[in-house]
TrEMBL record:
Cited Pfam families: YCII
Family of this protein: Belongs to the YciI family.
Protein species of origin: Phyllobacterium zundukense
Gene3D superfamilies: Dimeric alpha+beta barrel
InterPro entries xref list: Dimeric_a/b-barrel (IPR011008), YCII (IPR005545)
PANTHER family recorded: GSR2449 PROTEIN (PTHR37828), YCII-RELATED DOMAIN-CONTAINING PROTEIN (PTHR37828:SF1)
Leader peptide range in chain numbering: none
Protein name: YCII-related domain-containing protein
Boundaries of every YCII-related domain copy: 1-81
Length: 95
């Protein structure tokens, strides 16, 4: 499992213009089961994606198609982790 932390590197008006395409990108990968959760950081400096992928390389390939990446609007930090415990109801996140 991976935590993807996006940090905006462009003005918010440029980010806002790309949000519809970014949401379509997210929806595509929710449909495949790759993305498990996502949302904006507070304060609004970027976002977080919780992802399940076979490898970091495979995930980075997916992320390269994100309009935020293609338009150079965000930097991506990818951190792999192995969940060992969850809140009741989230057991599906365990390896």
């Amino acid at each position: 499992m991976f935590i993807v932390s996006l940090t905006y590197v462009a003005p918010l008006d440029e980010v806002d213009a790309a949000i519809p395409a970014h949401v379509a990108f997210l929806e595509k990968h929710y449909a495949t089961g790759t993305f498990l959760a996502s949302g904006a950081k507070v304060p609004r400096t970027g976002g977080i994606i919780l992802a399940n992928a076979s490898s970091e390389e495979a995930l980075r390939e997916i992320l390269s198609a994100d309009p935020f990446h293609q338009k150079k609007l965000a930097y991506y930090d990818v951190q792999e982790f192995v969940p060992s415990r969850t809140q009741a109801g989230l057991e599906g996140l365990l390896g």
